[in-house]
Amino acid sequence: MTLEVQFETMLIMTVMGIWLGAAMDTYHRFLGSPRRFKWTHLINDLFFWCAQGLFLFYVLLNVNEGEMRFYVLLALLFGYATYRALLQTVYRSILESLIRFTVAFYRFTVRLIVVLVITPVKWLLQVVLALCMIILSTIWRIVYFLLKVIIAPFRWGLEKAGVRFTFLLKWKKNLYTFSEKIRDLFSKLLNWFTKRKR
To answer: What are the transmembrane regions (predicted)?
Structure first.
């Protein structure tokens, strides 16, 4: 191994030590440190350190074909110590700023979608349901009036003849019940969309 390769290896391992410190802070920021033992946290730690070890070996493999020397560990420790002493506070501040920005951007995006998409769709559905209720109610009143006009002479004649037209009365009652169920269904749908909007 040439002197140039050794110097490049030490420099890159120092950077990797800084990277390791930043990765640990990021990991603990999102997952935290449990107050008591948890198997899930142990598994997460195992995956984290395996991923960091594989990444470190991959970088070392590209630098000096994977040769592990004592000065490599010293450079790695030096980078980690440099991060803890000089860069940790700055990195944590930047990380918190990025998290706040991401959360704010997510909330803004959700509100924008609600205002521009969900609210207009709900309003349109409310209008459609209201129009359907008005149309059905109007049609029902017209049909009901026509049926009364058509049936009235027959009913009057049968009543004069002493015959009770019971099946027409039953049909009229069933038709009225069916129309009330349809009206209740549309009322429930309209109330549901109104509550969802609130």
So the answer is: 6-25, 46-63, 69-86, 98-118, 124-147
